[in-house]
Design brief:
Glutaredoxin; 4-stranded mixed beta sheet; about 5% strand; Glutathione S-transferase Yfyf (Class Pi), Chain A, domain 2; 14 helices; mainly alpha; 3 domains
Length: about 325
């Protein structure tokens, strides 16, 4: 059976909410990464409001995170993400709605939009006065309300209704998003009572801070660079490692955009390999040195002809290491 497709970005707490639900239920899925606020006509057909996430399951297309989570719950009821008690179920739905609307307004549109989206996406200056007022007034009100809903002790396991539910997930995914805006240190003072520990679940499952493929790709490049320079001196080790790691990071960034870091290996490896600027430069240099490499030419002009093929060879292993790390991470999950 073809896995469920989720169109969206890890930057979105609504996407993260859906991914956490899929992870907790152990359902197979793939993520088609799309940069927020972008997308061509194909995306408009999937999402008439041009919002994420979008779920595609066969011929079914859904475009609202709450509707998607309810579909996931109906499709695979266990483990349940809604409480058994009818009153608690209603309350859980309300807390999810509070997160989607009130927290979305306060944390996304009045903060993240002003300090990150407007400057970096649209090239506009954010509203500093709105941000300051929001941090002073709205954020404390939201946190106070959430604290009033948090369990008073550990008798419920730290979760609002005794077991992890959609209420905990929806709220926690917004707190994960605070890191993306680089404004955590500027937030208004928070109450001292602890919040439910579901944030750790959200962080460790669907939204790792650094994707396993990126870890493996960059660390693999560092190892290959160190091995390549070890026959010379420490300066060569540092130089080769730094160059390969930096270019691996660039390749990973391109892969995050397309085809996505969770794409099939046969799609991800070629993109990671040939999106590496160092690889492209090495291929171009090798083509330029073709006569030297084939023995048709010799002399001083051919002294560096081997650099191209050696660099190509150095760029090949790290994407494979990234795929191996991703596979190990999935297997251990």
């Amino acid at each position: 059976m073809k896995p469920i497709l989720i169109v969206g970005s890890y930057l979105s707490p609504y996407v993260r909410k859906v991914l956490v639900c899929l992870e907790l239920k152990g359902m197979d899925y793939e993520v088609d990464h799309i940069v927020p606020f972008f997308g061509d006509d194909r995306f408009s057909k999937l999402s008439p409001l041009r919002r994420i996430p979008v779920l595609v399951d066969g011929d079914l297309v859904l475009t609202d995170s709450t509707a998607i989570c309810e579909y996931i719950e109906d499709k695979q009821p266990a483990p349940a993400l809604l409480p058994a008690d009818i009153r608690d179920r209603a309350r859980a739905r309300w807390l999810e709605e509070f997160a989607d609307t009130r927290m979305g307004d306060v944390f996304i549109w009045r903060l993240f939009n002003q300090i990150a989206i407007r400057p970096s996406v649209w090239g506009e200056k954010g509203d500093r006065e709105l941000v300051d007022r929001n941090l002073k007034e709205d954020v404390p009100m939201v946190l106070d309300y959430l604290e009033s809903e948090a369990p008073a002790d550990d008798s419920r396991g730290g979760f609002r209704f005794g077991a992890l539910s959609i209420a905990d997930i929806a709220v926690a995914c917004f707190f994960r998003g605070r890191r993306s805006g680089n404004w955590a240190r500027r937030s208004a003072p928070r109450p001292t009572r602890r919040r439910p520990p579901v944030a750790a679940s959200c962080r460790s499952r669907a939204v790792p801070h650094i994707h396993p493929f990126v870890w493996g790709h960059v660390i693999g490049a560092l190892i290959v660079g160190a091995a390549s320079g070890s026959s010379l001196d420490m300066k060569a080790v540092l130089t080769f490692s730094g160059l390969l790691a930096a270019n691996a990071a660039i390749g990973s960034l391109v892969c995050w955009w397309r085809p996505g870091l969770d794409a099939a290996a046969w799609k991800l490896w070629p993109m990671a390999t040939f999106a590496n600027p160092m690889m492209l430069a090495a291929i171009a240099f090798s083509i330029d040195q073709y006569d030297c490499l084939t023995g048709r030419a010799s002399g001083w002009n051919c002294m560096l002809s081997d650099v191209g093929p050696l660099t190509v060879a150095a760029c090949l292993p790290s994407p494979l290491i990234g795929l191996a790390v991703r596979w190990l991470k999935r297997r251990s999950a």
